[in-house]
C-alpha cells in the first residue's frame, strides 16, 4: 500500500487492520475553524488507541505573513509526529470530525513530509460511531516513534508560482472556496475579498459530499475536467488558508492527478502583500 494508491480507508477495513499484531497508528486530528478546540472532542471519546494531534500547533506553522496555516517547521513536525508514535514506514490512519478537512490536511502534511503510508478514515469519527464501533476516553502514551521528516514529497506553490500557474494557458489554478468569496461579494475571515487573477472557481461541494465523503473517482474526474483540469495541464489548488485546498489535492489524487500542487498560504498569504492584484466577479479575470 502507498499513500498515493490508496488514500482512503473504510471503517470495516480499518477494524480488520486494528485487529492485527502491528496495527496502524491512529491520529485524531479533529479541528474547527471557529469553536471549541478539537482536543475537547477527543477527550470526550475517540477511536481506541488514537493519539490527538493538533492541526494548528503541530501540523502547521505559526500564522503570519505566510498565511493562517503555513507549512510547519520540519524539526517541530518531526518531534510532534514522533511524540504521537509515528514510525518510519509504518501505516498511519488520520481522522477528524467527519467533514474531512483536518484529516485531509494531515494526510497532505504527512505525505509532503515523506511519509507515504498514510490514509484518511473515510467519514471520520461519525462513520466509526455509526458503525457501532467502540470508543475510548483513555489517552494512550505511545512509545516514541522514529519517523524522519523529509519535506518535498508533494508539490507546493508559493504566491509567485500560484500567480504563474493561474496565468498560464497550459495550467489551471483552482480556488475551492465558496462562490461568493471567490466573486469578492463577501469575505468573513481575510481582510480583502476576491480571488487570484486567472484562478478558476470549483467550490469544495463539487468534489466532496456534505458528509465529508469523496465522490466516486469517475465523477471527480468529470468535475475537475469541467473546471479545466485536463490532460497535459498542470494543476494547483488554494482556499482561504490551505486546509480545504488540501482536501482538493486529495480529491485530485483520487481522480488520478497525483501531481496536483497545494498553494499552502492560499488567500490568507496572497492578501498579506497589498501589491498583489485581486480579481473579482464570476470569471477568472486574467
From TrEMBL:
The UniProt keywords, alphabetically, are: Repeat, Transferase
Gene3D superfamilies the UniProt entry points to:
Rhodanese-like domain
Q: Which residues form the signal peptide?
A: none
Going by the entry's taxonomy, the superkingdom of the source organism is recorded as: Bacteria
Domain (Rhodanese): residue spans on this chain? 20-137, 167-279
Q: Which SUPFAM superfamilies match?
A: Rhodanese/Cell cycle control phosphatase
Q: Which GO terms describe its molecular function?
A: thiosulfate-cyanide sulfurtransferase activity
Mark the transmembrane ranges.
none
Give the matching SMART domains. Answer: RHOD (SM00450)
Q: Which PANTHER family match?
A: SULFURTRANSFERASE, THIOSULFATE SULFERTANSFERASE
Protein's name according to its UniProt entry: Thiosulfate sulfurtransferase
What is the originating organism of this protein? Micromonospora saelicesensis
Amino acid at each position: 500500500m502507498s499513500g498515493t494508491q490508496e488514500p482512503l480507508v473504510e471503517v470495516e477495513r480499518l477494524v480488520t487492520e486494528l485487529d492485527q499484531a502491528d496495527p496502524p497508528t491512529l491520529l485524531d486530528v479533529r479541528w474547527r475553524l471557529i469553536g471549541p478546540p478539537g482536543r475537547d472532542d477527543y477527550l470526550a471519546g475517540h477511536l481506541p488507541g488514537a493519539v490527538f494531534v493538533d492541526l494548528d500547533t503541530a501540523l502547521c506553522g505559526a500564522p503570519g505573513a505566510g498565511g493562517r496555516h503555513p507549512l510547519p517547521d520540519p524539526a517541530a513536525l518531526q518531534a510532534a509526529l514522533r511524540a504521537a508514535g509515528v514510525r518510519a514506514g509504518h501505516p498511519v490512519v488520520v481522522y477528524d470530525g467527519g467533514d474531512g478537512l483536518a484529516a485531509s490536511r494531515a494526510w497532505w502534511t504527512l505525505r509532503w513530509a515523506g511519509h507515504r503510508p498514510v490514509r484518511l478514515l473515510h467519514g471520520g469519527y461519525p462513520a466509526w460511531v455509526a458503525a457501532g464501533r467502540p470508543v475510548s476516553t483513555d489517552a494512550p502514551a505511545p512509545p516514541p516513534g522514529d519517523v524522519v521528516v523529509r519535506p518535498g514529497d508533494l508539490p507546493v506553490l508559493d504566491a509567485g508560482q500560484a500567480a504563474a500557474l493561474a496565468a498560464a494557458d497550459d495550467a489551471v489554478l483552482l480556488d475551492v472556496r465558496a462562490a461568493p468569496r471567490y466573486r469578492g461579494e463577501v469575505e468573513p475571515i481575510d481582510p480583502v475579498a476576491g480571488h487570484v487573477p486567472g484562478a478558476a472557481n470549483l467550490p469544495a461541494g463539487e468534489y466532496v459530499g456534505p458528509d465529508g465523503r469523496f465522490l466516486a473517482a469517475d465523477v471527480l474526474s468529470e468535475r475537475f475536467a469541467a473546471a479545466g483540469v485536463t490532460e497535459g495541464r498542470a494543476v494547483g489548488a488554494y482556499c482561504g488558508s490551505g486546509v480545504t485546498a488540501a482536501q482538493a489535492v486529495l480529491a485530485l489524487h483520487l481522480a488520478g492527478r497525483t501531481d496536483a500542487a497545494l498553494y499552502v498560504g492560499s488567500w490568507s498569504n496572497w492578501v498579506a502583500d497589498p501589491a498583489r492584484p485581486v480579481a473579482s466577479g464570476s470569471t477568472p479575470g486574467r
